[in-house]
Predict the structure.
Amino acid sequence: MARRGNNIYHRKDGLWEARYVKSIDLYGKKKYGSVYARSYTAAKEKRDEVVSTLLLRPQVTSKHAMTITELTQEWLFVNQNRLKPATVQKYRNFIKKHIEGQIGICRAAYMSPLILTDYSNQKIAQGLSPKTINGILNFLYACMGYGNKQYGYPLYKPVRIKQPRKEMRVLSTGEQKTLTQYLLTDLDIYKLGTLLSLYTGIRIGELCALQWRNVADGCIAIEKTMQRLCKSQGGGTEIVVDEPKSSCSHRIIPLPDFLVPMLEQFRRPNPETYFLSSLGRPIVEPRVMQYRFKKYIKDIAIPPANFHALRHTFATHCVACGFDIKTLSEILGHSSTTMTMERYVHSSFDSRIKNMSKLKLIS
């Protein structure tokens, strides 16, 4: 029996035909294209590849007929060379998962805050997180700004939804001590990497992208970050090593004295070798370190925490040790001290007790 689905048909000549929308004219009429292959799977893959190419090369259309999907595709095509690969991938996912077939069919010339508010409420009802919804709204606002300059579309006031602040997990002094003692027992390169993050605050992607040439003279130089991204064409994912999160993330961090001899014990002769590499594993990606850290937390029987909690713990520990905020901000690679204070400095309950005990009765 012939298989049929997703606009894929088994022809009488034995070939499989996969159809896709090439463009939409001024009156909303769709123009279709087709690809052919000898199997259902091959036809689907061929079509997906063509569709992904169309995403990179949006169709030129009348400004009055342009849909939100077409506008976002055009904006991404124009701006993709100045964006990081991870950002491009994030915006592609926004278009594919949350814009196409939904708000994407609306004409860009008639976009309004009312439409966006209704769209946001739908997304909330679907269970999408406030952070993701605001990310989509920010993306749409950037695209509409481009549409305003290029085509004269109205530029509305930004729409945002209330995003409750989530308190980040920070390890207590006792938990840090327990974790440190555990890591120092049967020390290996993965435990050393975890220690390095705990006492320098580097991000997990920065740790995985660190090479031995970046470790010298009692300092580490942060130049790259590593992450796993969806491939731009076809299915699957790939490991990408790219510039760090921002220009401020390029930084040199002096190491605590106690870490230097530990690092030298594991130094590899080839300076281009990745810091976390080991026999049979030349590259260690972030999710591997996440899995290992989860095991460490389980072994020492403390409440759950993810790897990024080490960065927050480091920042809070530094403030308790008397670091000035400007220095801490530069070590963390932040563009401003405000970000450091608002997002990465947390007071422990012990510090609250200590400070409250300083109050004296005025009499």
